[in-house]
Design brief:
Elements lengths: L7 H52 L2 E6 L16 E6 L13 E6 L4 E4 L6 E4 L10 E7 L9 E6 L5 E6 L4
Antiparallel strand pairs: 1-2, 1-5, 2-3, 4-6, 6-7, 7-8
Length: 173
């Protein structure tokens, strides 16, 4: 009578092969995960800029996007784009987030990513969807542990008309 199942030797060989495959594949898989995190955050930032611009046009007032860590206010001491950002409706047209203005969305920052953007109030749009600041403004996203030799940095440029361009570049350690 023949026993069904695997022998101990067959199981050990299978585990050894699996161990080799995992040790070879894991480092390259980490690169894919890091790249996808940057892509996801890039898409979230582009969507937030588009929401601010479309709201400004729809309401004929204004709107903006700014760094935030509390879902209610912009900037402040020690606040960075890495903490998160919010989109608000600028109902009084002053280009700043004031109390009482409608918050349209808030996006929490991601761990293991470095997000940089304008140090000022953020990016604001007038009622025609144009940025209040005529000079191009940039946002950048990259993994925190990114080396200068890696092409994992995404730089978003928002021009005067509110259009967003994305460009991949080398990381800035």
């Amino acid at each position: 009578m023949k026993d069904k199942g695997f022998t101990l030797v067959e199981l050990m060989v299978t585990l050894a092969v699996l161990g080799v495959l995992v040790s070879v594949g894991y480092p390259s898989f980490q690169g894919v995960i890091r790249s996808n995190r940057v892509a996801t955050t890039t898409n979230e930032l582009v969507a937030s800029v588009a929401l601010a611009r479309s709201t400004a046009i729809r309401t004929s007032l204004g709107a903006g996007i700014c760094k935030s860590n509390d879902q209610n206010s912009c900037g402040g001491d020690g606040v960075s784009w890495n903490d998160g950002w919010l989109v608000w409706e600028d109902s009084n047209l002053n280009g700043k987030k004031d109390s009482g203005e409608t918050i349209l969305s808030y996006t929490q920052g991601r761990s293991n990513l470095q997000v940089d953007g304008p140090a000022s109030e953020g990016i604001t749009f007038d009622g025609r969807g144009r940025r209040r600041n005529a000079a191009d403004q940039q946002l950048s996203i990259q993994p925190e542990d990114c080396q200068a030799t890696e092409q994992l940095r995404q730089v978003l440029t928002v021009n005067y008309s509110g259009q967003v361009r994305s460009k991949k570049s080398a990381c800035v350690p």
